[in-house]
Design a protein that fits this description.
about 325 residues, about 85% helix, 5 helices, single chain
Length: about 325
Amino acid sequence: MFELNKNFNLLEEQLAESGLEMQWVGAAIGAVTSIVGGIAGASEANKANNDAKKAQKEQQKHLNKIAKTTNKYNKRKFEVDKENYYKQREYNFETALKSWQYQTTIRALQEKVDAQKYLMNVKNSNSQLTYNQIAEEQALSREQLAVNDARAENAFQRQDLLVAQLAAEGKASLGQAGRSRAKGMQSNLAQIGRDIAVLDASLTGEIRQSTLNMFDISMGRYAADARVEAARMLRPEKLPDIPAPTKPPEPKWIAPMKVLPGMAAAPVQQSVMAPLIQGIGGAAQSIASIDFNNPTTQGKAESMFELKKSYGN
């Protein structure tokens, strides 16, 4: 055992002297480090890729949920909008129908009131025309009576004058004779004639005035009748029918377009092979750094392998 360790130590001393051991150890460490680093990088890249895919799936799941919720809301809103429209349309129609019924009742009542007003106006107009006629007849009768009274008065006055004439003639015939008698009778006749002429003139004036009054009375009635006719109401006509309410035409409904879920962004994939390739390349560079063309190094390396082989055996 002591001999073996002695030989081994002797070998190490020889390798240390040549520098080959340090070169091989450094190259080995560099190669292992590169490979281990490559494997670690590949593992990290693979984990990052898996995490990115998982995040994409979660984001896509969230986007799908948003689209589903939006479509559900749009569908429900569409149904509610239709329901509200039909309720509002029915309410508007019922309101319009009640208004139409009310206006129709008011129209019928208005027609009845107009007919009653017209009949009352016709009655009042006919009564006024009758009153005008009676007033005219009474006024004409009064004028005619006034004329008749004037004629009667004229006749009585004539009789009084004739009586007075006869009395005067008799007196004259008793108290006078000859030419004086004749003159007295002529004087009396002249006075009576003048008095009769005055009476006739007065009667004629009264008759003319009465005639004018009768004309005025007739014209007054004509004017009064014209005012009555002007104030007479026109015969009311039947009012036009109020159009009954109708429902609006059925609308066309377009269902809301279905919302498609958004696409989650594709995850950025890291290369798993790149770190391995880089590690292998680094290991190759470390091994390539050993100068195998150097005869001394090559010989010592072969001796080292041989010694290690013999020691191992």
